[in-house]
Write a structure and sequence with these properties.
heterodimer, A: 453 residues, mainly alpha, globular, B: 254 residues, alpha+beta, 8 helices, 14% strand, membrane (chain B), transmembrane (chain B), DUF5819 (chain B), transmembrane helix (chain B)
């Protein structure tokens, strides 16, 4: 940036005399000798001055435009190449997506043969697949084995195991392609029972191919931290032990672009959802959520449905609220206070869909992706808090001390008194402050450092 | 930003960046066109290029519950003729949808098994609605004798105008008959010789009447279909079906 700044003025000053000034200078004596009176000379000077003025404005204008463009370019380049963004957010996306996949498989396990296997041959999927995917050989595994109970079950269990590896982030670069192929093969083998959550899930997995979602909170992370570069070892060994696959800038580039594409995807989904809804009478009149909640299919908790639809204003608030939050979501991401509101609102929107409408896996998929919008700082402090209170609880359990003063500790996590265990008389705040540092202060400190390193 | 040491950029990195950014921009633009409500803006991508790019990997549709959310239930009832001591007895109707829905009601993590008959009934009703009045008269008749009853039904339906509607209908009738056969076998055993199914749609109580006590339920929009022969799809496992369905059915009887 500094080098370019100094370069630019030099260049332009070099140009200036060559192009503009000499031309005017050569004109000046000519016109002066031809007219020879003060008035025309003054007029000439005026025009000349105006000409210079316009030329300089022109130059400044383009100078500013150029500078802005250059700064913009530098910012974009630096944003894309210098370090991976939202590492914790994307790691949480990976974890929640993994839990979603595993959960879906787990809660469909007892009925797998009834709805996806030989018990569902009546739907003729086994003869002619309805989705495009089973027709692509790599995605045809579950389709091909669906009539064989034991092989189907084996593949199903294998997929569950891979979902676990995906969640914990073990050898992610290898596990992701395997998981993607198996998952798409499984979910697309039965077209009738799918929902939009399946589409979103698949699309998010595709984007994860380019990102580094196992860079934090994963087994890969642990291995990479332990790894120390020893140049004498063979290339393949270094890569296997945790050296980044690409040049750091290229790795950042793909990672950050994946984030951009994922953000665009989510924003389009929300905004188009709002636009589609806004075109319908029930949404305009504000009672749209009443109808699905009153059906058997999408009102899976009839008593709760009645509770939420009993009072008209609540129905309107939820119906209009969901359109407004979907519509405004991208803009609300731009500043921190509105982002917090947007994320809280959209999460409660999804929790509502998950519980009231019986679509937990759709909702969890959306929540997983929305996690990229929570800053790494926030994730770290959440992590530190959880670790902190876990350690404290363990310490306290070891010393067999009853859980007292719990409410006080939530407030000041850092200063919290681990040593109420060692100091039974720590009820008075003064005593606590005096004794706390000695025994326990370094413990929480370590955890904070862990989290931020 | 970054006044101090600005990282060096290799040429290859810059070139990769330009290509990757262009690809990402194209993907974002294509997704925008695909996800947003259809508009003349789609004409900027010539021919079928957009579809070819988006399908199948980025296939999606976000007009969920829009412009109008679903406001009715689809139900599938099944009954059968069962051989009992040489005589044929007609069973009561079993509400297969109610049986499956019981798997997802008051369940935080409902299995997909619970929505099969609803999906099936909804698809069937759509194809039945599309038939002409003449077709509907034929469909209401019983077709169950011999092994060629489907061919006879098919030929009869195609002998009327709008024969082009018949394949879609016959396809969904196959599925729903095969499903009903499974339900009948699960509930009444192997002595089943014919099945009949009924599909209806029933709207929810209008919003303004939702809290009025003693509301009459909305009228059932019934698709009338006659008796049918049994259909067992290739590879169908009666056991895999009945073990789940019968268990849910028995739970509901208690």
């Amino acid at each position: 940036m500094t080098t370019s700044k100094t370069e630019r003025p030099e260049k332009s000053t070099a140009k200036k005399p060559a192009n503009v000034a000499p031309a005017k200078v050569s004109q000046q004596p000519e016109s002066a000798s031809a007219a020879g009176n003060g008035f025309s000379e003054g007029l000439g000077n005026l025009f000349r001055g105006l000409g210079l003025f316009i030329a300089s404005l022109w130059k400044q204008f383009f100078g500013v435009i150029g500078k802005v463009l250059k700064q913009g370019y530098d910012f974009v380049e630096s944003w894309l190449l210098d370090g991976k963004k939202s590492l914790y957010g994307l790691a949480m996306t990976r974890i929640v997506l993994g839990i979603t996949g595993f959960g879906l498989l787990f809660f469909n396990f007892n009925t797998r043969l009834y709805s996806f296997g030989a018990g569902a041959a009546w739907n003729l999927e086994a003869m002619v697949a309805k989705s495009d995917f089973p027709k692509i050989w790599i995605f045809s595994l579950f389709h091909d084995v669906m009539l064989n109970d034991s092989v189907y079950t084996l593949c199903y269990l294998l997929l569950m195991a891979v979902a676990v590896l995906f969640t914990i982030g073990w050898r992610f670069k290898f596990v992701l392609p395997v998981y993607f192929v198996l998952w798409v093969s499984f979910i697309e083998a039965n077209d009738m029972l799918g929902d939009q959550g399946d589409n979103m899930y698949r699309i998010a997995l595709i984007f994860l191919f380019f990102a580094d979602p196992a860079a934090r909170i994963s087994l890969d992370w642990r291995r990479r931290r332990k790894y120390q570069a020893k140049p004498e070892t063979a290339w393949i060994v270094r890569k296997w032990k945790g050296e980044p696959l690409f040049d750091a800038q290229i790795g950042s580039l793909f990672h950050n672009l994946a984030l951009v594409v994922l953000t665009a995807q989510v924003c389009f989904v929300y905004v188009s959802g709002a636009l589609y809804k806004a075109g319908g009478k029930p949404w305009q009149n504000g009672w749209a959520i009443y109808s699905p909640l009153s059906t058997d299919r999408f009102g899976t908790w009839p008593a709760l449905s009645d509770l939420f639809t009993f009072w008209g204003p609540v129905v309107v608030a939820i119906s209009w609220g969901s359109i407004i939050i979907q519509m405004c979501f991208p803009l609300m991401l731009l500043t921190r206070p509105t982002r917090i509101v947007a994320l809280l609102a959209i999460m409660s929107f999804h929790v509502g869909i998950a519980v009231l409408m019986g679509l937990p896996w759709f909702s969890l998929t959306m929540i997983a992706i929305d996690f990229i919008f929570i800053r790494d700082r926030t994730w770290k402090s959440i992590g530190a808090r959880i670790r902190d209170s876990f350690r404290k609880s363990m310490l306290r359990a070891r010393s067999k001390e009853p859980l007292e003063g719990e409410a006080d500790e939530v407030g000041n996590a850092d200063e919290a008194s681990v040593d109420t265990a060692t100091e039974p008389n720590a009820e008075k705040p003064t005593a606590e402050k005096a004794t706390a540092p000695k025994a326990a202060k370094d413990k929480p400190k370590v955890t904070v450092q862990d989290a931020s390193s | 930003m970054a006044e101090a040491a600005k990282p060096a950029r290799k040429k290859i990195v810059r070139a990769t960046m330009i290509v990757a950014v262009l690809l990402a921009a194209w993907h974002i633009f294509a997704s925008f066109l695909w996800i947003a409500p259809p508009s003349p803006l789609r004409q900027v991508v010539p021919g079928t290029a957009l579809t070819n790019y988006m399908i199948p990997f980025f296939g999606q549709s976000w007009s969920v519950f829009a412009p109008e959310p679903i406001n009715g239930d689809y139900t599938l009832l099944v009954r059968a003729k069962v051989d009992k001591d040489g005589k044929q007895e007609t069973t009561d109707w079993v509400n297969a949808t109610k049986v499956e829905i019981s798997m997802i009601h008051y369940n935080l993590f409902p299995p997909r098994a619970g929505i099969q008959s609803t999906e099936l009934a909804s698809e069937f009703k759509g194809n039945w609605d599309a038939l002409t009045a003449d077709h509907k008269v034929i469909v209401k008749l019983g077709y169950f004798n011999g092994t060629d009853w489907r061919n006879r039904l098919d030929a009869k339906l195609k002998s009327y105008p709008s024969a082009n509607l018949v394949p879609a209908y016959m396809g969904s009738e196959y599925m729903i008959t095969a499903y009903s056969t499974q339900v009948a076998k699960a509930v009444w055993g192997d002595k089943v010789s014919q099945v009949q199914f009924q599909v209806y749609r029933q709207n929810v109580t209008p919003f303004e009447n939702r809290n009025t006590p003693g509301q009459e339920p909305q009228p059932k929009q019934i698709a009338d279909v006659g008796w049918r022969g049994l259909i067992t799809a290739p590879g169908q496992s009666d056991e895999d079906f009945s073990s789940v369905f019968k268990a849910a059915y028995d739970r509901l009887q208690k």
